[in-house]
């Protein structure tokens, strides 16, 4: 019997128990709270099984407890739990290797599978219900403003002026997208509230706009500003695609490269449009 391996599993089970217990205390939904308490109780039972094999007490992983509780508070319970499950320290194969120790390991394997496939998949937060509205605002802001800033960079060639024009363009675009989402949701057969959907779309758009344009207010060099804007756009795409892919069980790679390809293609086209506009209209600012 691999004592070190069993002690690692024992520590993981105790840590997970505490995480689920803490999350259950901050959840308002009674059904979700009961579900998390049920998982926590099963995890502590697993801990006791492994403790009976080792005869030792172990301390939980305090950093993991802090991190996953914080992530669940900030980014949502669904995301926090799925991130926790995807980053399990102990794989199913590890449990399989221990099946010959005791018949109780079979029960633990079934419990762990149930946590992932049944209990956690039942969690349906409002933030995920409106994720399509956030995607709409974020995608539009990334595609439209990245392209617009690339075009403005060649046409105007003044960092602060580009930032101001980009800000006005972005704010106008956010209001347009928010109103379009309101009207669209209002006439759809959905349980989403039209006003909330429009707010999610508008805020996602404005937040993306501010993140994309701030290099133009900090840097004097227009091409340095554009480079930072493109890096910021890639960062937004990466973080948001990771969030949505994990929370909704979708392919990260496919969605990420679709967004990158679309946004950068439009940015390149707009860049040359800006060059043509500057030459045709003889703009010199």
Description:
The protein is an all-alpha fold and 285 residues long. It has two domains: 3-122; 126-281, no CATH class. It has twelve helices and no strands. Helix 3 (62-75) packs antiparallel against helix 4, helix 4 (77-86) packs across helix 11 and helix 11 runs antiparallel to helix 12. The chain is elongated, with a radius of gyration of 25 Å. The mean pLDDT is 80.
Topology:
Elements: H1 3-26, H2 30-54, H3 62-75, H4 77-86, H5 92-97, H6 104-119, H7 126-129, H8 131-156, H9 159-186, H10 194-218, H11 222-248, H12 252-281
The gist of it:
By secondary structure, the chain is mainly α.
Extract low-pLDDT stretches: none
Main β-sheet description: none
Order of helices and strands: HHHHHHHHHHHH
What percentage of the residues does DSSP assign to strands (E)? under 5%
Helix residue percentage: over 70%
| Rg, Cα atoms, Å | 25 Å
Termini Cα gap: 76 Å
Number of domains: 2
Mean pLDDT: 80
Based on helices, strands and strand pairing, what is the structural class?
A: mainly alpha
Quickly list its features.
285 residues; mainly alpha
């Amino acid at each position: 019997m691999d004592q070190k391996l069993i002690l690692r599993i024992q520590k993981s089970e105790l840590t997970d128990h505490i995480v689920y217990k803490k999350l259950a205390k901050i959840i308002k939904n009674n059904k979700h709270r009961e579900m998390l308490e049920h998982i926590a109780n099963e995890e502590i039972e697993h801990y006791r099984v492994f403790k009976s094999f080792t005869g030792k007490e172990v301390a939980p992983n305090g950093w993991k407890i802090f991190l996953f509780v914080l992530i669940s508070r900030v980014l949502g319970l669904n995301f926090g739990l799925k991130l926790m499950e995807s980053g399990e320290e102990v794989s199913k194969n590890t449990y399989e290797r221990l099946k010959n120790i005791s018949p109780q390991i079979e029960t633990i394997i079934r419990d762990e599978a149930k946590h992932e496939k049944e209990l956690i998949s039942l969690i349906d937060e409002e933030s995920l219900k409106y994720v399509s509205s956030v995607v709409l605002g974020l995608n539009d802001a990334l595609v439209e403003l990245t392209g617009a800033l690339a075009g403005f960079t060649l046409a105007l060639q003044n960092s602060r002026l580009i930032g101001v024009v980009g800000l006005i363009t972005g704010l106008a675009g956010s209001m347009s997208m928010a109103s379009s989402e309101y009207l669209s949701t209002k006439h759809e057969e959905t349980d989403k509230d039209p006003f909330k959907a429009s707010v999610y779309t508008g805020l996602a758009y404005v937040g993306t706009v501010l993140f994309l344009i701030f290099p133009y207010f900090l840097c004097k060099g227009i091409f340095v500003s554009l480079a930072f804007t493109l890096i910021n756009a890639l960062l937004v795409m990466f973080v948001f695609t990771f969030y949505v892919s994990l929370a909704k069980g979708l392919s990260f790679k496919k969605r990420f490269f679709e967004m990158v390809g679309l946004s950068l293609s439009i940015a390149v086209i707009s860049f040359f449009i800006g060059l043509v506009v500057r030459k045709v209209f003889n703009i010199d600012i």
